[in-house]
């Protein structure tokens, strides 16, 4: 049986006291860190965000708390999340691999993809990263856990790849690691000092 990302899944891993993988305070700190880093490299406030594999779009509220006028676009492969929140939270249906062809009328100051890649097969990751590299104007926050980590949470379908595998895949698309799972876009290469590159 393939895993189903339905309401029960989100209730368990994002709201249940016994299983939730993060607290609201942790999410708030993470979003603030990522926004700060993106704006540091862009040299201006972020204007738009693409959130890939956004689930129920928890980042949207935190982003709007920090930047009320931000343009938020979510993409999600859960039929439940898109049906329930698609219109109200601007979430469209797409799988990560579809980013190889999917384009919008703008590049994004920030692209977010949290807790997704370690559940995908290599071909889908490589395909989607093409789009990340091409659509990122500023920063990509690619939160991934590897065989070297012990992230807790949902282990069903988890691929424990070595960190080296992801580093090489990101580098192929010109993404520059700048710490805390943030990657500067190829367009920002001249703004990233040698010692900032991990």
Structural class of the helix and strand makeup?
A: alpha/beta
Oligomer state equals single chain
Instruction: From the alpha carbons, calculate the radius of gyration and give it in angstroms.
Output: 16 Å
Beta-strand content: 15-25%
Topology:
Layout: H1 7-15, H2 24-42, E1 48-52, H3 58-66, E2 71-76, H4 79-89, E3 91-93, E4 108-114, H5 122-135, E5 136-143, H6 163-172, E6 176-179, E7 182-184
Parallel strand pairs: 1-2, 1-4, 2-3, 4-5
Antiparallel strand pairs: 5-7, 6-7
Helix pairs in contact: 2-3
Overview of this structure, please?
This protein is of the alpha/beta class. Helices cover 36% and strands 18% of the residues. It is built from 6 helices and 7 strands, in the order ααβαβαββαβαββ. It has helices at residues 7-15, 24-42, 58-66, 79-89, 122-135, 163-172, and strands at residues 48-52, 71-76, 91-93, 108-114, 136-143, 176-179, 182-184. It has a 7-stranded mixed β-sheet with strand order 3-2-1-4-5-7-6, with helices on both faces. α2 (24-42) crosses α3 (58-66). The longest helix is centred in the first third of the chain and has 19 residues, at 24-42. The radius of gyration is 16 Å and the shape is globular. 32% of the residues are buried. The model has no long low-confidence stretch (mean pLDDT 91).
Short description:
With 198 residues, the protein is α/β, with parallel strands linked by helices. 36% of the residues lie in helices and 18% in strands.
